[in-house]
Hints:
By secondary structure, this protein is of the alpha/beta class. 44% of the residues lie in helices and 15% in strands.
Amino acid sequence: MTSRHQPSGRFTFTAVLLSALLLTGVASAQRTTVTFWTWVNLEPAVAAFEAQHPDIDVEIVTFGPWDLHDKLLTALAAGTGAPDLAQLVIRRFDAYLETGQLADLTPFVTPDHRASVPESIWTAAMSGDQVLGLPTDFGPGVVWYRRDLFEQFDIRVPIETWDDFIEAGRRILEGTNGEVHMMPLYVPSGQWGVASFAQFLHSRGGNLYAPDGGLIRDNELLLDTLQWYYDLAEVYGIAYPVPWFTPSFWALVSAGRFATLPANTAEGRNIQRFAENQAGQWGIMPWPKWSADEPERTGIWGGNVLAVPAQSRNQEAAATFAKWLTGSVEGQVAYFENVGGMPVYAPARETPRLQQAEEFFGGDVIANNLLPTENWYWFSEAETTVLLGEQIDNLFEGQVDVAEAIRRFEAAVAQRIGR
């Protein structure tokens, strides 16, 4: 009889353990860690991505938004120290495009992805034909309005034109003995006040800069829009000047002193937070037209993009995560749930979550009140915001008229920015 050796239990256990350790070591060696700089809480979204991509770990490193922007510029200039992936605000993305230190993400953009994001958003994330940033979200303008006041004064919704908006504001102001203004006007301007004004200009198809980065001089549309903006408070009296996002501003909102807030889509969460006593009294409508024969369109307050530094050694893994977060339904819905930014990827806006009626806003759906946008060219945004804000403030302080405000703005851009 042939004798066959039977392995001992100890040998079997040891062999299995060694095999498991070897397999674990191989699997571990194949995992790629992507370092991701951001300022928002995306842990749940990252967990969902990692469950689908077991070969990629995403390590989140959080900074304040402007610290992140400064640190990344420093790292790009130094050629070392950058993460594998970074979130950046789209308004300031031109500064990073100009470094020449971002990886080309064009190969990761499928035809469906490209066609499902507004071209005006892609324009801000590209250099020539290269996609250097993948947009996550955008802030198109809508009008948040007090449906109880509109019903009280028999104002038809949606308001068709801004002339109709002014007329409705006059009716509410008169009917409340001056207690309720149609909207706030953000003065002193600051960063967000300028962003609000730019949203009105953008919604007219206007721009501060040409596609080549040169300031548009003798900008008649800018002059006309700034005059209109000024007249809302100083001629028609329907807008009340107050600094944006200050305790005094939200106290006025909570007290019911504004009939509308023309703003970006993300402000819905802030209205719910600071005016929770008004649940069910608010509604959402599209941005009005500038005249009856003008096209329907809105302006963009801002948004964010994801960029992969060229110095990253994990570009493919970083781009895989960025593509999932920006160009898939699941990734975009997860981003919306975590951050609240409106998804740029159109199929995500058709999902049950984005089509969910907002009880606080009387059952309205934010995504169904969005209008198309034209291209907006962000150049030297931080410096431009300061210079334009200074002149808007001078205008409301009575130091200059509209024409002089724009003349000084143009001169300051030439002197201090060189555009």
